[in-house]
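Sequence only, no structure available. Ideas?
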Amino acid sequence: MKVAVICSNGKVGKLVVVEALASGFDVTGFARSENKSGAKNFVQKDIFALTKDDLSGFDFVVDAFGAWAKEDLPNHGKSLDHLCALLSGSKTRLVIIGALVFQNPVERNKSAVPKTKKQNLSCNSFQHLKIYCEIPKQVRK
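Reply:
I predicted one. Tokens follow.
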């Protein structure tokens, strides 16, 4: 299975790349700065500059976009709209990865979930995705 990880250089994106590679997926990272994700295949491009051609041929696109400054929060919706428009009419599935967000900026970097539980949740998600991919397409309809 071919997986594109959007914003692969971010905290969540890097974890997604690691788990996807460990699960045996063919992973391509996308980010606006040079590759820091561990993905062997990489495209340096801003999320808002991506085109349909950039995302064609992937079975799944994982959106790991994150913006935490108050003025950047509207970009969550804009980026999602952009990705949906690019993938509309294709067979590529969009997977949106969320993150815990705290009201207090000081608490933002602290986790409410122990590390082992987060890793298990991530690992389980990719195991479910892998199982889903192995189900014949006619059964999934």
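The helical segments are 11-22, 52-55, 74-87, 115-134, 137-140.
Hope that gets you unstuck.
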